[in-house]
Amino acid sequence: RQERTLVLIKPDGVKGNYTDRIKNTILESGFLILRERTQQLNDETAAKFYAEHSSKGFFSSLVKYMTSGPLIAMVLEKDDAVAAWRGLIGPTDAHVAKVTHPNSIRAMCGLNMEENCVHGSDSPQSAEREISFFFEDLSAGESLIRR
Ligand code: CMP
């Protein structure tokens, strides 16, 4: 079944010049890139995107990291896109990824538990919410980020 997922190349991935390598992996893996945009989050938009983590100890650090520079948001489409993309990026902690999933994207460009270079939606429901957050034209509701 065709499915969509939201990808972020996080600020560390953009700064480290990993964008082209990540995009090559995306295209070689048979995803269609439906949309792409560069976006600088601020404290408010980052906190809203990560609202589910607002009670966690790492939340303020996460907001600081995600606002530290521009990120690239992309909408990918493919059969089972959510699971396929999560398989490619590997575990959240880049230290773990380097050991258990050495060919994963986070093993290539991630640094640690927080600076893990890329994001992938964790379910089709999250994907639709996250896509509408960045791309107004792909959502029935309202996009938070205005062009
Ligand atoms: P992601 O899974 O894409 O979305 C939540 C992010 O929070 C995660 O990537 C990491 O960047 C960050 N994160 C998750 N767990 C921790 C943690 N224990 N300490 C610091 N950052 C974390």
Automatic annotation (TrEMBL):
InterPro entries noted in UniProt: NDK-like_dom, NDK-like_dom_sf, Nucleoside_diP_kinase, Nucleoside_diP_kinase_AS
Domain of life: Eukaryota
Protein name in the entry: Nucleoside diphosphate kinase
Positions contributing to ATP binding: 10, 58, 86, 92, 106, 116
Residues that span the membrane, as ranges: none
Taxonomic source organism: Kalanchoe fedtschenkoi
Active site residues of this protein: 119 (pros-phosphohistidine intermediate)
Family the entry assigns: Belongs to the NDK family.
Residues covered by the Nucleoside diphosphate kinase-like domain: 2-142
Enzyme Commission identifier(s): 2.7.4.6
Any GO BP annotation: CTP biosynthetic process
Gene Ontology MF: a single term: ATP binding
